[in-house]
Design a protein that fits this description.
Chain A: It comes from Actinotalea soli. Chain A: Keywords: ATP-binding, Nucleotide-binding, Transport. The complex is a heterodimer. Chain A has nine helices and ten strands. Chain A is an alpha/beta fold. Chain A is globular, with a radius of gyration of 18 Å. Chain B has one domain: MetI-like (MetI-like fold), CATH 1.10.3720.10. By secondary structure, chain B is an all-alpha fold. The two termini of chain B are 30 Å apart. In chain B, helix 3 crosses helix 6 (124-146), helix 4 (89-104) packs across helix 6 and helix 6 (124-146) runs antiparallel to helix 8 (164-199). The chains are: A alpha/beta, B mainly alpha.
């Protein structure tokens, strides 16, 4: 594994493809029989594009994200990340990742946690420190740089996790319900911060959520999935500019509400019972 | 300042209780004219303690030295074997029943056998008994600790393309460390107890346990009790040091490393 092999952003001009999922199927063999978590999913995410995956619990949205991250392998189908296999992309540190749990190392300070991926991939001490200084500033935690994670609130820990995810300036960010465990106010503030960070890093994002407003607020496209077996039901384009998104007034905008309604209808389309596990707030 | 004061305030009630108990003990012995072989008075034990302090302190050093050596030996072996078991599932399957068996064997019962093996003038048998007693809890807690890596951390290491070595150093070992120290605290008391009790079964007459049996056999009951106090001091010292070490490590590791 060589260091510093992460491709520069310039190699991926807009219009290039960040993620190409073709016919991805994932079947889990359990003691209670087989479960088809994903069934023939096709998805393309352009460079710099923000795509949310939304759907009821068990629709395979997290499974799809884990396949892209090469944390899991598909039973059938292929996954390409910037033109290479998911495994090659993982080993080349092509993506940054954040989970629902912040997953910080409790024995490391905030700064050391943010530096973790850089340290593991051989970035020098001085460069690491400089990058961490910039990132704690970016997520508004400069005065907490030398604190330990258990001294921070859940929202602050999640901000550290996001800083860690973007530490290597990845061209792709994979986020699995990063705000799922947070209260609504913290959640909205962090969404705003994520929009700002994405505008700055111009990374493509695959974002798993089960909050409709969150998906609409953040995304260029919302991929609506259905459960058992996990399939893509509909892809909803959200025509809100990024500039509009950085404005908190957007949440009260008519276009925003219209988009929320479209996603909601896509979720409920064809299912007589209301989709379970989806937050309609 | 305030921390010192709260510590003092928390420490005061137990000390008061101890003083009250000693006073009650003294009163019962004096007023009830309890014979010394039944229960010597605290003042008699205290004066023996002072009179024999040179002997008691050297006995403390001998027993403490045996316990410490045994603890280190047992703990290092425990950690090493647990690491091997963690890396090789087959070794783990082989070791688990073996260790469970070792845990129920009355280890001090080995002492007489070991004395014949290593000679009655040697401290080796006592060190070995203490080491075996210390090995079990350290092995058990370390094995558990090495399995506590959270799934999110495992995913993170995989996402970073970490080598097994990197993952071990970055996540597995730091997660296990607080568990190792908990095992060490449990092992420290066991090592001291085992080292003392092993002395009851023979060997050189140098340690706390030897002197307790000698004094009791010679009807010097207050003296026997004075050596018991010496044994308590050894036990407290070991427990206190390992408890402090555990607290230090735990604070560093945060509340999540249960």
């Amino acid at each position: 594994m060589t260091t510093q092999t992460a491709p520069q952003r310039e190699e991926h001009p807009r219009g290039a493809v960040a993620v190409e999922v073709t016919g991805a199927t994932r079947v889990f063999q359990g003691s209670a029989g087989t479960v088809t978590a994903l069934d023939g999913v096709d998805l393309t995410v352009g460079a710099g594009e923000f795509v949310s995956l939304i759907g009821p619990s068990g629709c395979g949205k997290s499974t799809l994200l884990r396949l892209i991250a090469d944390l899991d392998r598909p039973s059938a189908g292929t996954i390409e990340v910037f033109g290479r296999t998911a495994e090659q992309a993982r080993l080349a540190h092509d993506y940054g990742i954040a989970f629902q749990q912040a997953g910080l190392l409790p024995w490391r300070t905030v700064r050391a946690n943010i530096e973790l991926p850089l340290a593991m991939h051989g970035t020098g001490r001085a460069a690491r420190r400089e990058r961490a200084d910039y990132l704690v500033e970016l997520v508004g935690l400069a005065e907490f740089a030398d604190h330990y994670p258990d001294q921070l609130s859940g929202g602050m820990q999640q901000r550290v996790a996001i800083a860690r995810a973007v530490a290597e300036e990845p061209s792709l960010l994979l986020m699995d319900e990063p705000f799922g465990a947070l209260d609504e106010m913290t959640r909205e503030r962090l969404q705003g911060e994520l929009v700002r960070i994405c505008a700055e890093t111009r990374a493509a994002v695959v974002f798993v959520t089960h909050s409709i407003p969150e998906a609409v607020f953040l995304s260029d496209r919302v991929v609506v999935m259905s459960a058992r077996p996990g399939r893509i039901r509909e892809v909803v384009d959200i025509d809100l500019t990024r500039a509009a998104r950085s404005d908190e007034g957007l949440r009260e905008d008519a276009a925003y509400f219209a988009a929320v309604t479209r996603v909601r209808e896509a979720l409920h389309h064809g299912s007589p019972a209301p989709a379970q596990g989806v937050e309609l707030r | 300042m305030t921390a010192a004061r709260t510590a003092a305030a928390r420490g005061l009630p137990p000390v008061l209780l101890l003083v009250a108990l000693l006073a009650a003990w003294q009163t019962v012995v004096v007023v009830g004219q309890v014979p010394a072989f039944l229960l010597p008075s605290p003042s008699a034990i205290g004066s023996e303690l002072v009179a024999l302090w040179p002997t008691i302190s050297s006995a403390i050093l001998v027993t403490g030295g045996n316990s410490l050596l045994g603890l280190l030996l047992g703990a290092l072996t425990g950690v090493a074997v647990a690491v091997v078991a963690g890396l090789l599932p087959s070794a783990d399957r082989m070791l688990q029943p073996f260790v469970a068996g070792l845990a129920v064997v009355p280890i001090v019962a080995l002492a007489p056998v070991l004395y014949t093996m290593y000679g009655a003038a040697s401290e080796v048998a006592r060190v070995i008994v203490a080491a075996i007693a210390a090995f079990v809890p350290v092995f058990v807690t370390t094995t558990r600790g090495l399995r506590q890596v959270r799934p999110v951390h495992r995913d993170l290491m995989r996402a970073y393309g970490a080598t097994p070595r990197q993952a071990t150093v970055t996540v597995t070992v730091p997660t296990a460390v607080p568990f190792v120290f908990t095992g060490l605290r449990l092992a420290s008391s066991l090592a001291v107890i085992s080292a003392i009790v092993a002395e009851y079964f023979g060997g050189p007459r140098t340690g706390i346990g030897s002197f307790i049996t000698t004094a009791a056999a010679g009807s010097n009951y207050a003296r026997a009790w004075a050596f018991v106090v010496g044994g308590i001091l050894v036990g407290l010292a070991f427990y206190g040091v390992t408890l402090a070490a555990e607290h230090l490590v735990r604070r560093r590791a945060g509340p999540r490393a249960r």
